[in-house]
Design a protein that fits this description.
Blueprint (H helix, E strand, L loop, with lengths): L12 E4 H4 L17 H11 L3 E5 H4 L6 H18 L5 E3 L18 H20 L4 E5 L4 E2 L7 H22 L4 E5 L8 E2 L4 H8 L8 E3 L3 H6 L4 H10 L7 E2 L18 H13 L6 E3 L9 H27 L1 H10 L4 H8 L3 H9 L4 H5 L5 H12 L4
Parallel strand pairs: 1-2, 1-10, 2-3, 3-4, 4-6, 6-8, 9-10
Antiparallel strand pairs: 5-7
């Protein structure tokens, strides 16, 4: 393999403990790989060139651990991080695995469940901050319904908002350097999950007490499951200043949540995502929320992790070639030609602008006759990706 695509910590690639640690269990079959100890995972990912690891609370500390056990586990893990120069940039809470969350966490009908979910999350926030996390992700895996008659829709929105407000006030009260990132998903494990897309999340954020503390964590697979364009959602989140974190993987449309190796399925979509992140110099971590095929042993897991990072770097190089290709850039220069006078009239409403716009003869029939060259541009993109230019 070329050293040109060798991952390094400065690339800011991260993996969840739950990703490389996925044992291959699915709804129809038991585990195929033994669990990996978190400290061992830190060591192996460091050797592959990763920047850090992210975690749910129970990826590290078992659900029923005592306070003493918790402190010993965390101490050992922090030592492994220090020994291998690894970071924990992001943390989250497991609010979906235990049976108590079968009807949701923050949106469960039972107030005892909602209160327990808040208690558990407060403890997990403390853990994340202790490990150095500055981003805290909320994925509402059980926040949804199969039986719509069982839930009052406005209540579920209100309860979710109350929980987010509670946590933002807690973080401010504690003086933590922590921001929240909300992760959307349309379905699975619930029949329908509340706030199913990045667009839903962006609106919800504006209703919170401290919207400046809350952004989004778009995931490639989740937007693809909904039949949406991931790059469009990411661009909207970035433009609104809300792209706090990102989950990279891959997905076949209209399937269950596959969490495939990044770049393994939708190469063009992955390319434009990488190109966007690199073109805008996005300073966040490139987090891979994916897992190895069920066919793999442990070596296959590390092949998977290395492949995610290598694919990103290959696509980053393709983006550089795209940006330096004279023919492509010539087409784009024509497509993106600007008209300062017209754009000035459209930028802000004034009575004067209205008057000037109404006096212009645009001759739409003539404008409509011009071809835009998108066919050629798309073909040249294909040729860059396939390595023939």
């Amino acid at each position: 393999m070329s050293d040109q695509y060798q991952p390094k910590p400065e690339h800011k690639f991260t993996f969840g403990l739950w990703t490389v640690g996925n044992p291959g269990r699915d709804p129809f079959g038991d585990v195929v790989r033994p669990p990996l100890k978190p400290t061992y995972t830190v060591k192996k990912l460091s050797e592959l060139g990763a920047y850090g690891v992210n975690l749910h609370d129970n990826d590290l500390v078992p659900f029923d651990a005592t306070a003493v056990e918790r402190d010993n586990i965390v101490s050992e893990f922090k030592k492994a991080l220090a020994d291998h120069g690894m970071k924990v940039p992001m943390a989250t809470t497991n609010l979906f695995y235990h049976p108590v969350f079968k009807d949701g966490a923050f949106t469960a009908n039972d107030p005892k469940v909602r209160a327990f979910a808040i208690q558990k999350t407060l403890n997990a926030i403390d853990l994340g901050v202790e490990l150095g996390a500055t981003i805290y992700v909320f994925w509402g895996g059980r926040e949804g319904a199969e039986v719509d008659a069982s839930k009052n829709g406005p209540d579920t929105v209100k309860w979710n908002r109350e929980a987010m407000n509670f946590f933002t006030h807690y973080v401010k009260d504690q003086g933590y350097d922590l921001r929240f990132a909300l992760e959307a998903k349309p379905n699975e494990p619930r029949g329908d999950i509340y706030l199913p897309t990045t667009g839903h999340m962006l609106h919800f954020i504006e209703t919170l007490d401290h919207p400046e503390m809350v952004g989004v964590n778009p995931e490639f697979a989740h937007e693809t499951m909904a039949g949406l364009s991931f790059i469009h959602g990411v661009a909207q989140a970035y433009e609104s200043g809300k792209l706090f974190h990102i989950d990279l993987n891959d997905q076949k449309m209209s399937r269950f949540d596959q969490d495939l190796r990044f770049g393994s399925e939708n190469i063009k979509a992955a390319f434009f995502l990488v190109k966007f992140l690199e073109d805008v110099n996005w300073d966040g971590n490139r987090h891979f929320d994916a897992h190895a095929y069920r066919t793999e042993d442990e070596q296959g897991v590390w092949d998977f992790a290395a492949g995610c990072m290598r694919s990103y770097l290959i696509l980053k190089e393709k983006a550089r070639r795209f940006n330096e290709d004279a023919e492509i850039q010539g087409i784009l220069a024509e497509i993106h030609a600007r008209d300062a006078e017209l754009e000035g009239l459209m930028a802000h409403y004034t009575a004067e602008s209205v008057g000037k716009l109404r006096k212009i003869d645009f001759d739409p029939d003539t404008i409509a006759q011009k071809g835009l060259g998108y066919e050629k541009l798309d073909q040249l993109t294909f040729e860059v990706l396939t390595g023939v230019r």
